[in-house]
């Protein structure tokens, strides 16, 4: 249509990042086309575009919309929801009710600050005592999130109700980590004896078309994680010598 604004979207990321996965899911669910720019080496050779676009944290993901950069996965998902309204780009991710919207943001922060943080701590633990304490915190976080699902879903399939919402997208970024944690560290986030609702949620989410398109292959994720783990071990050995 004449005069219609052309939206230019670029996403800086890495395919295996749970934070980048969130943004890709949001873009896919909104039906938005974008240029995917893969950062090949975030440890030693960050691109000039990334450094320019996110000069504070110098990390992915970064969404560049018509030349303007938005950083941090949760903020990017909220931005996508607001910038591409439900009138033209599918249902809103965040609830319309102010209280429900505030609760969604609260639990999204909880996912990163409590659940993800403790699970990562368990994976990095150097002693059995440290691992046990981190796993205890992870278990408590999962149980709390199980109760949050009851509250937010109101008996429906997703945090967002009948359709995928903001919290579903935020938590879905961690699905590949559930397989990685189990394969390498014996850490499984969701299972039926502790969190039957969240385990059922994960199974439902994974069969969605958007999830099939975006969630990375588990075997590829495991191989990549093993490659990085070996590289870190080799670097540590070289340093000690």
Automatic annotation (TrEMBL):
What Pfam families does UniProt report for this protein, alphabetically? GST_C (PF00043), GST_N (PF02798)
Does the record bear Flavoprotein in its keywords? no
Q: Looking at the keywords, is Iron present?
A: no
- Tell me the ranges covered by the GST N-terminal domain, including all copies: 7-88
> What keywords appear on the UniProt entry?
Transferase
Molecular function as annotated in GO: glutathione transferase activity
Which top-level enzyme class is recorded in the Swiss-Prot or TrEMBL entry? transferase
Q: Which SUPFAM superfamilies match?
A: GST C-terminal domain-like, Thioredoxin-like
Superkingdom of this entry's organism? Answer: Eukaryota
- Documented EC number(s): 2.5.1.18
- Report the family membership: Belongs to the GST superfamily. Tau family.
Name of the molecule in the record: glutathione transferase
Query: Which organism encodes this protein?
Result: Paspalum notatum var. saurae
């Amino acid at each position: 249509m004449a005069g219609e604004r052309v939206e230019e979207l670029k996403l800086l990321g890495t395919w295996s990042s749970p934070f980048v996965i969130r943004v890709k899911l949001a873009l896919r669910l909104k039906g938005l086309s974008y240029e995917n720019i893969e950062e090949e080496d975030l440890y030693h050779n960050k691109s000039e575009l990334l450094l320019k676009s996110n000069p504070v944290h110098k990390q992915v993901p970064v969404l560049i919309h018509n030349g303007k950069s938005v950083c941090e996965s949760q903020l990017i998902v909220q931005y996508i929801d607001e910038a591409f309204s439900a009138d033209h780009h599918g249902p809103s991710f965040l609830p319309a009710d102010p209280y429900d919207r505030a609760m969604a943001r609260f639990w999204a922060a909880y996912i990163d600050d409590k659940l993800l943080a403790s699970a990562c701590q368990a994976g990095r633990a150097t002693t059995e005592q440290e691992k046990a304490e981190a796993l205890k915190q992870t278990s408590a976080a999962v149980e709390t999130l199980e109760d949050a699902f009851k509250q937010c879903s109101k008996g429906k399939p997703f945090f967002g109700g009948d359709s995928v919402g903001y919290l579903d997208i935020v938590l879905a970024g961690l699905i590949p980590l559930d397989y990685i944690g189990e394969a390498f560290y014996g850490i499984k986030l969701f299972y039926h004896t502790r969190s039957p609702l969240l385990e059922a949620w994960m199974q439902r989410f994974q069969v969605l078309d958007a999830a099939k398109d975006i969630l990375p292959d588990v075997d590829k994720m495991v191989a990549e994680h093993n490659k990085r783990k070996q590289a870190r071990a080799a670097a540590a050995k070289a340093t000690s010598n």
